[in-house]
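Lab meeting, action items carried over

1. Structure of the two-component assembly. Owner: GW. Status: complete.
Input record:
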Amino acid sequence: MKLAAIQKRMARAVMQPLTRSEQMQHRAPDGSAMRKYAARFIKPNDRLSSFERLEIYNRQYWFRVLSALQEDFPGLHAVLGDRRFQKMSEAYITDCPSQSFTLRNLGARLETWLRKHPLWAGKKQTLALDIARLEWADIEAFDGKSETPLRLEDLAGAADGNIKLKLQPYIWLLDFHYPVDNLLLEVRDTAEERDFASNAFQERKKRKRVQAVAKLKPAEIFLAVHRVDESVYFRRLDREEFAILTALQNGKTLARAIEIGFRKSKVPVEQRASAVQDWFQHWATLGWFCRAESPKALKTPKPGSGSV
Amino acid sequence: MLVPASPFNGFTNYGIGIGLRAPHYDHILTRKPVVDWFEIISENFMIDGGRPLRILDQILEQYRVVQHGVSMYFGSAEKLDREHLRRLKTLVKRTKTPWVSDHLCWGSVDGRYTHDLLPMPYTLEAAKVTAQKIRAVRDFIEVPIAVENVSSYAEFHVSEMTEWEFLNEVVECADCGILLDVNNIYVSSQNHSFNPMDYVNSVPAERVAQIHIAGHSKYRKYILDTHDHPVIDPVWKLYERAIQRVGHTATLLEWDDSIPSFREVHDEALKANKFLSATVLAKAV
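Predicted assembly:
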């Protein structure tokens, strides 16, 4: 058997889901008996059959990928519960196995996949999609690219409405149907409490997570997932803020972004200028703007040339 | 006694290092302990930005760092992942690592990754494929490469030679270095019933760029390479023999699970000094 054939054969078996009792299936991917499938390419020894030797790799694969997904999506785990999350994870990884050299990217397709498979979350589908999206944004924001931020004084040139401002690549702007930022923070707080080994303590932690999910009421929120001093934070945004930032992120000019931001806005017209000024000040203080690459990019103004 | 500095480790003379792991970041950055060098898992830093790279830069200001990869899969029948290579080279420029190591294994098929270090069939065909890949990676990243023997739990019917014969075939064809993991030799020797000393005595000493030591977990019918225990005596014996053959070589303790305090890990690694000093004394005599 050639190298490529052995590797295909072994990988197919290793990536095949385990049984309910976490053992290798007795049916091979090609429909034959796994015992025969394994024996064709793996030697037995005096202690283990070919099946048992292959099973070590099969189990290690699933333990590794399932624990990686659970570590990255504690919020979704809390929403779905232990059993459903485990089953959902197996189904997701079977459909969408890792296509990257790093496990960091394992959950990249989870939200899209969940959307196509609403049975897993059932009545909690909207909440599940919200939390999965937030948790993926959290991963992306953690180690996303950053560029030299523009300082507040650099933004002085923004008086020209035709300029384009670029947001830091690590910033994710998201709108949700539930306050999932609070839920995720609560779930993480529970997880970080001292990890006593007792079953009673673990049960209490689990109850807390269940309660956190149960008490969550729908509420439309707008969020920026961003970094300060290399730590990820969730910042609630006003509807108008969200719309302006999203428009800027999509490459609109400043004037156009502001126009989009206040479309159907309830903010009184006379208060809008000062609101925009306050927002820009906050965003610039947080280092959210960086130099755009387009010809209409913001140029560093001369000192003392005005402000937004 | 052979001179340890060689083209396979960038003509360096590193001593005892430990793996750089997240639970120790605070201790290292605030206490600044004396450590000869740190080994990083390349993939953890092949990212675009954020805290991991900032911490790495702080470490690089004060310590020597060597890159160790877990997913190049030199033994895979598939083509190399260009995105992986590009990111690896970017990191190599950042760390200025004198050599890069990764495993003599495979782990992906049809672009799907198992994230495991799967064993090779020991055939001439596999050796040729693997050596070609190692050469291609070395030419691209422009630093020496050392390949590490992995722990394994399965053997293939098609194998035409022993594991150490296969390793020798690969490194000769690729003209690369070896990261000799004496714990992995021990684990595989128990799982496949061979004498681990035969392995240590057979590797080309002049190609050994680095040595790994680690702990493992013993089960009823096999041993798993878990990196969650201190090094056991039989593994120290293999290390002693390796050092006798190879000389004073860069040595690294791996501890990746149930990670104890920095001091405990470092103290365990420093036990290697006993054997390294013996080689220096022997040379002096």
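2. GW to write a short summary for the group page. Key points so far: Strands of chain A lie at 166-167, 172-176, 221-228, 231-237, 289-290. The CA atoms of residues 213 and 269 of chain A lie 39 Å apart.
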